[in-house]
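Let us practice reading a record.
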Amino acid sequence: MKPTPELPLYLKIADELRARLLLLPDGAPFETEQALTAEYGVARGTVRQALNLLVQEGILSRTQGRGSFRTVSKEQQYNLMLTQELTESIRKVGTNSSVRGLSITLVPATPAVADLLKIPHGTKVRKVLRTRIVDGQPYAYCIGHLRTDKVPAFYKRDYKTSLGNLVRYELKVHIHSRRCDLCAVSADETVAAALSIPVGTPVLKVTIVCLGREQEPLLSDVFYFPSSQSLHFEV
């Protein structure tokens, strides 16, 4: 068994700083590069990498001579809008892309899922599990949840491309926009088994929420990518 790779230090620092930033009001000043270097006891370049990542995510703005600030909330500034379905991007990576372990069930929404979809806790949602395979190897483990009051029922035979495309083109439900959140997490037993990696291995978690005309959440889709993959997102 291969040893679990350590998450780069700047990503660990970025995770902690992101949590701080999200608690701040719009436009609030943030710690200086110098102060953070002293706090973490690391090289200034490491802190700069972490801050630059938060700038790229759109939750931190930095101006020379003025400092760093929590970005003023404008949804299009800090919510990534993917230019195409993520599954379609995955399919282009390899010459042979397929889905394994597809299951579609009706389950009570967990508090986390219910909050994401803005529905009462315990409301029945349609849960879609699958593992995306590229060139014979697990590439991503995917967990989707769909509101039953907004999205009609569907079955395994209907699943041909991606969850978003199925909803939009097969079920004729209008998707107005999408929100995307990315973070690094440790693989639990389910994710590790699906991706054939040790439990605790760092993975990239990508959460996509599709919104309707009134900006109401229709579905959420969570992708887990192993750290062995090299990914490029066009946003």
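A brief commentary: The first strand starts at residue 29 and ends at 30.
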